[in-house]
Amino acid sequence: MSGRTIGRAVGALFLLAFVGYGGGSALVESGSGTADALSGVLDHRLRISAGALLMLVNSVAVAGIGVLMLPVLKPRHEISAYAYLVGRAVEAVMLAAGVVFLLLVVPLARERADAGAPDASVLEALGQVAKEANRYSYQIAMIALGITSLLFCRVLLRERLVPAFMALWGLAGYAAFLAGAIAEILGYGVGLVLSVPGGLFEVALGVTLIVRGFPAGPSPDRDGPAGDVSPALR
Fold first, then answer.
1. Domain for residue 60, yes or no?
2. Does pLDDT of 139 surpass 60?
3. Which three-class secondary structure state does DSSP give residue 184?
4. Which domain of life is it from (predicted)?
């Protein structure tokens, strides 16, 4: 595929990932957003299951981004290319694991409906644990995304694959994303606020790539003798 075609495909996947996880999370939250982990789950299990499937679409999309970006990044900086692929793979796996934890609330709620009072309290606690496991899986995925996306945006900037202001926006956004995810694991609830710049960047990048794709070949200032240097050593 040409750079333009790959760029458009990557842009579409960025938007698909954003809509998939955002929409899926909203559906799951609307079906199980009560103070008690298992209250109302059985009444909204179809909504929760549909939301979980949308969230799995996000995992497929982010893995696809890593695969499609490999031939674009590798000629320009091999280490960054493979790091980004691994980072996106870790993100996809951890987010999928989080979805599995979320789905556990459905059988737990079913068991609680059939259980006596003592067992019900234990099952409620397990439901809370499942939700917390999903939250930690998400934050670990965001740490992997934040670290490797800094390398990704560095290549975007150096090689002029997107406008410079957009690459700088990405660097700042993913740095904030990474800080927010680490803060959430440490117990500081600032992750949502710090994720806004990075989230908006991914939407803007998706639209930009759909419109223009990636340029073919190296940037003009990479031609000549300097272009003979191994990309991995730059």
1. yes
2. yes
3. helix
4. Bacteria
